[in-house]
Amino acid sequence: MFNLAIYEEDDEELFHRNFEQAEKEGKVKVYKIDGTPTIFPVANYSLKPMNCPEAALVFKSKTRSYQELPIRLSEFGILHRRELSGVLGGLLRVRQFTIDDAHIFVRPDQIQQEISQLLKLLIKVYKSLGFNPKFYLATKPDKALGDAQTWKEAEEDLEKALKNANVQFDLKPKDGAFYGPKIDIHINDSQDRDWQLATIQLDFQIPQKMDIAYIDKDGNKKRPVMIHRGLTGSLERFIGILTEHFQGAFPLWLSPIQTIVLPISDKFLDYAGKVKNSLSEAGIRTDLDQRSETLQAKIRDATLQKIPYILVVGEKEEKNQNVAVRTRSGQDLKNMTLKDITDKIIKEIATKS
Ligand SMILES: [Zn+2]
Predict the structure, then answer these.
(1) What's the 51 CA to ligand 1 centre distance in angstroms?
(2) CA–CA gap between residue 265 and residue 219 (Å, rounded)
């Protein structure tokens, strides 16, 4: 069996020696996915490089009627790419990542409607994060599989869907995948850097290669069209981009920790614990700083962690059954009852404000 441990090797020379040997022995094959060489050990065990073929297998697992389409299969699949060590970077480029993938099987007459819906979903997701997505229609490359007529129709379908969704778009001539045209979606982050995140791709090749079909109205077998869609792409990369975009200060609804309770001293740990439990029960992600540090140090740490709401409790707060509220930007919101701060936070989360 091909030694998978070489995936961990940073020694490129050793990797290539091992790889060439394994290729000679017929133990591995290499394919390019999105331009990245990806290794498939030819054995009964391998690291998964993409989700698409298994979605086709699920489709193929039983007879499908035209009435069942569109069939939408989504998956948070863990994938692997053998990126060279020199290009690895933080969360932005890694060798194992999770992708928010979906494969949608449609009849040719459903392409436009389905793409329009996907565009609406995508715009909704991006707007909730404060991004203004930019759209590109990537057309037939020089080296493309499939006939010219199918390509033309597919490009027209994508173009109509973009127009129906009322979005501005630019062309990326000859930048489609070899198996079909696609819509690329870019955003600009707060530092005005351009990132490509989502893609919506039409694919006529996998349905043909994997011989998948549905039974049409007339009783004949027809080929479905496969749509590959990722809203965020690699989640690791997406989280990296969001972290940079918000400079760590995530909006309240997205913050890993939304509030933290800081007792002035150990004497108020019990009351602080009650406040924490009450907020947690209301569905607010709450932490409690139990360390025997000074209040000043606790406030500094919570501020550095960019936790949106910092709730300080001491003797006065316990007596009045309330909390002293401050924000990560240093704003003093004075004392509020537990109910008032809970309602305020829940409302802000619900409206994503
Ligand atoms: Zn796919």
Answers:
(1) 6
(2) 76
Q: What is the pTM of this model?
A: 0.78
State the DSSP code for 266: G
- What's the 114 CA to ligand 1 centre distance in angstroms? 16
How far is CA 251 from each of CA 100, 275, 328, rounded to the nearest angstrom?
A: 22, 22, 11
Cα(104) to centroid(ligand 1), Å: 9
CA of 55 to the centre of ligand 1 (A): 8
Digit-coded pLDDT (tens) for 110-127: 999 999 999 999 999 998
Cis bond upstream, residue 70 (ω within 30): yes
What architecture is the 252-350 domain classified under in CATH? 3-Layer(aba) Sandwich (3.40)
CA of 101 to the centre of ligand 1 (A): 7
For 136-193, what is each residue's pLDDT tens digit? Answer: 999 999 888 888 888 888 899 899 989 988 889 999 998 888 888 999 999 988 888 8
261, 276 Cβ separation under 8 angstroms:
yes
**Ligand 1 mean position, distance from CA 192 (Å):** 29
C-alpha 298 to ligand 1 mean position (Å): 47
What's the gap in Å between 52 CA and the centre of ligand 1? 4
Domain with CATH 3.40.50.800 in the chain: 252-350
